[in-house]
Amino acid sequence: MAYQIEKLIQGGAGLTTSKEGKRILVMDVLPGELVELGHFQEKSGYIRATVQNILQASEDRITPPCPYWGRCGGCDFQYAKDEVQGVLKEGIVLDNIKRLGGIDPASFLTEKLETGPAWGYRNRVRFHVDIAERKVGFLARKSKSLVPIEHCPILCEKLNALLENPGRLFEAARTQMFSNRGGSSGFIEVPAFSGDDEVSLLDEVVKTTVGDHIFFVTASVFFQSNEYLLPALTSYVASHAVGSTVMDLYSGVGTFSAFLQQPGRQVIAVERQKQCISLAKRHTPYCEFYSEPVEQWAKRQKGAAVDTVVVDPPRVGLDASLPSLIASWKSHRIIYVSCNSVTLGRDLQRFASEGYTLSQVKVFDLYPQTFHSEVVAILDR
Ligand SMILES: C[S@@+](CC[C@H](N)C(=O)[O-])C[C@H]1O[C@@H](n2cnc3c(N)ncnc32)[C@H](O)[C@@H]1O
């Protein structure tokens, strides 16, 4: 039997429907494609299946250009043309806001999708190192084995130079192993970040410039990993902040704080990782920094007066206690930066019940060749 793919949903699965009306999820497909399916697996509330044959391929389908495609666990969206990937991911975001947030996309403005170079963009990565076999690579698709990589086409040049000449990576892997920080994959994980001039491994501090701001960053802390789109993301967030008191919650090394700072404005940044805060103090000296979990800090801010609250939580989204605590500060505007539109949708609904309306949304395709993207949602009281 032939199945037609209706659309892509969270995680990049294609959605189709069985004769009995059950939802079937399939990977490696594109909307509109006509496919034969096999290996049906019943899950709770849906069926998983795999493509056996593509009867009618989408015009947007291409042969994945990377030689490691299908084996390496990264970059699973390479089979779509570069120019349609962001559009399809924007569709997934709007769908999640509608389904999980209960907000009709016709009720807010969707700003133009922001895209950049589709290859060679990534300046932060976790290499997996097998010290005994002297191999470096990434974990395989759906398995815990290592795919040795000689050149990764989404990484920037300086990170690829490390793959060509991996001596420093083996040294760093040994340091990780002796300090028991190697990760849980069975291989030693070595984080790397490419700054302006040098690559940081582990806790080495390097300088990186975004727009006209200089940051000090290590590979061990969070920093956005697309060097081409970060200036657009930071200026979009900063240009939508209003008023003289702004909070930057989940601040990392103060990436947004640096752009939010301006004469006459108080910027308060909260981040639980101490290493982030000590780096942030070097490049954003005029902000007030607090190093503790946001949910714990927020409980003590009864009666706070704030004009704009920026939140940029990890994939799990906001702690359930936060939307009502943040709403109690009565800020005019909330700027929600999200890397997971499922938890964004859930949190938007919580903010809606606290009196905030979603005004606009903009998707930044920070991670071409993958199903990930970054979204900025602007809510007004
Ligand atoms: C998605 S990153 C955003 C960082 C920063 N806004 C940026 O763009 O570079 C999320 C940050 O939140 C921090 N974090 C995670 N959970 C937290 C919590 N409960 N309280 C405070 N910070 C947290 C992480 O250490 C990380 O730096």
UniProtKB/TrEMBL annotation:
Lineage of the organism: Bacteria, Pseudomonadati, Spirochaetota, Spirochaetia, Spirochaetales
Name this protein carries in UniProt: Class I SAM-dependent RNA methyltransferase
MF-aspect GO terms: rRNA (uridine-C5-)-methyltransferase activity
Coiled coil: none
Similarity comment: Belongs to the class I-like SAM-binding methyltransferase superfamily. RNA M5U methyltransferase family.
Organism domain of life: Bacteria
PROSITE patterns: SAM_MT_RNA_M5U, TRMA_1
Annotated S-adenosyl-L-methionine binding sites: 224, 250, 271, 312
Keywords recorded for this protein, A-Z: Methyltransferase, S-adenosyl-L-methionine, Transferase
PANTHER family recorded: RNA M5U METHYLTRANSFERASE, TRNA (URACIL(54)-C(5))-METHYLTRANSFERASE
Active site annotation, chain numbering: 339, 339 (nucleophile)
Alphabetized Pfam families for the sequence: tRNA_U5-meth_tr
Biological process, per Gene Ontology: rRNA base methylation
